[in-house]
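A quick aside before the break. I want you to see a complete sequence-to-structure record at least once, exactly as it would be stored in a machine-readable document. Don't worry about memorizing anything.
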Amino acid sequence: MDSELSPQEGQDTGLSPTEPGATPAGGPASPNPARNDPGLTQPGVAHPGDAGPPTGSGPSGFAQQPTRTWYPGAAGDAYPGSAGPGYYPPAAPPYPYNPPYPYPGPTPPGSPGGPGGAPNVPWPAAAPARPRRRRGLLLALTAAVAVVVGAAATAVVLLLGKSESPTTMALLSGRAIALAKGLTLTGTIAGQRASLAVTKAGTVEGSYAQSGNPVTRITINDVTYIKAPTAFWRSVVVNPLAAQQAGGKWAKALGGAIIMTFGSLTPGQVARVLEHAGNNPRVADTTLGGTKVIKLTAHGTSYYITTSTPNRLVRIVGRSGATPYSFSVTPLTTVTIDPVFTILRGDVQGLQGAVDPEAIVDPLQKIRFHSDCNGVSSCTVSSRVAVNDPATPKMLLKMIVAFSGTKNGAAFASCSDTVPVATGGTVTPACGLHGSVWTGWVNSHTSNFFTWADARFEPMVNSAGDIVTLQNELNREQRA
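That is the input. The structure line, written in tokens, reads:
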């Protein structure tokens, strides 16, 4: 810490004292530079060509130092070691000294520049009292500065001890999230309400609104299923028949039906981002619900972390593709996640035969009546079709056949058949009417009659065996 001192009493002011060997007040300066040496000049003796008396006197008996001047002189008349003739030598360093003999007068024996002999007064080796007061002042000021600096250093240490860097806050909140069994996410998706749970393995369960339609959702093994009204499906699929088939049922969702993904919102993924925020993360101080938090932004997503310990992630705001989201975050423990798995098990059971509205079914022939339809006991029908859905390697195809007495008339009976099919393959489902249903229809006529069969097809996913596999997956996930 720098400080500027004003002249104090006893401070060096550039004035030379009245001392033995100095030019007396009113005495002229010698034209010979050598005689201006305090050890050579005799007090009270004038020298021709001297510059004249000093001007004024300093405080406390100090005489003002003569002005250094150039004067004409002959070669060889320069002060030894000077730049040349006519150079006034540097003045001797001033020192305060009050001799015990009267001044002016002859130089006492033993003084500098006087005749030899034992000096009556020794040459002062130590600094006089007033400079000591100056040093005392400097020491006092130095001590004061040391105290201030020491206090400042202590304050910094205490501050660092009580606060944390954003990197530390992110790290500690990330470690806490990493221990969670899952996360509850409550907020909005695309500005509409949302409430979901994401497990550690990435399984998603919950509901939200999309285009004003209520949506219930499950994502398991990276496959998403949605239960939503027909109006929702009409907004996301091209085939109106597929939208009707999926309306109100669990259906496999693809493309525009999936408004956002949650892979980046699992406990592990969130923790990884926070634990590797770096030494200089992008942060801003703010509040959330009256709580002081930092807003840490990484990869376009903002993480709101409490500044008080324990540091916890309380909110995530970001985008999934073009869809904005904002969620309050609550970590789930082994106990609090149990209700989530209970809901998941019930929903997964309902996924057997979930509709695949994106699949394309192409009938390769008209429905065919088998020969048994000529009798009174049964009537079997079938149709060969091709099925394709690049996103679904294996599917189920359900054929539903409605029987009526007139073309497009009211059905008096129906049958169905479900068969597995690989995407891009062909299959021939078959079903029929048997027993009293067909016999009663035939016997109700006394003459020739027509029977019409109208087939429709529903591509589906998840056999009974697939559901068992999914339930086992949930069990393993809950135990992990």
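Two observations worth writing down. The chain has three domains: 9-113, 171-332, 356-460. Residues 1-124, 133-162 have pLDDT under 50 and may be disordered. We'll return to this after the break.
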